[in-house]
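Section 4.2 – Deliverable D4.2 (structural model, holo form)

The reporting period included a commitment to supply a predicted holo structure for the target in complex with zinc ion. Inputs used:
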Amino acid sequence: MGKVDDCLAWLLPRRCVLCLAPSGRHAVCAGCWPELPWLQPGCPGCGVPLSASTPPGSCIRCRRGRQAPLRIRAALAYTWPVDRLVTGAKFHRQLHYAQALGELLAAAVGSVTATDDHPDLLLPVPLHRSRLAERGYNQALEIATPLAAALGLPLAPELCRRVRHTPGQTGLSARARRRNLRGAFALCDTCAGMHIAIVDDVVTTGSTAMALARVLLAAGAARVDVWAAARTL
Ligand SMILES: [Zn+2]
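Output (structure tokens):
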């Protein structure tokens, strides 16, 4: 944040997206911030929190962990009040909620990721153009924009397109989700040798991120991480 931002924050303090108290330069006030359901970095395979007694590589959710093809980092548990922020951002045009989620994700990722471990670019999960036309915006891009700004990382929303309109994933089994997503994404540019972080609002089974990651890895990406504002537990 520069001096101009500091002055603006002093003149026009923001309001906490949760309780509407003045929150300075932040999306969430100092009172609400520690009350959020923050997730500690968990299993690198699926992001699920690991207890101290879980041996490495034996996560109960994904039974991998050690050599996972992609590493998922989710900032917050998808419980109250995060669910309200996510659904507001996704379905009710509450773009300041998406902005808040991006800032919260930046705080979570920035606190544990060394700068030299940062990805080369951020790729928000693309929406199919018909879904984009219907919604008017891509919530993953709205989350990734403040995240990229906070961490000083390039944003590459045009790297990949969603070429197949996939029906909603809710209620489908993991296997049905995978089938549903086959051929959903197409690469528009080269990504060989790059370290890419996919940005999404919520990770549930990870199947969407996995489908996108497969396309990137097949095109020679060196490493793919998934950074999600929230994950279901
Ligand atoms: Zn608050």
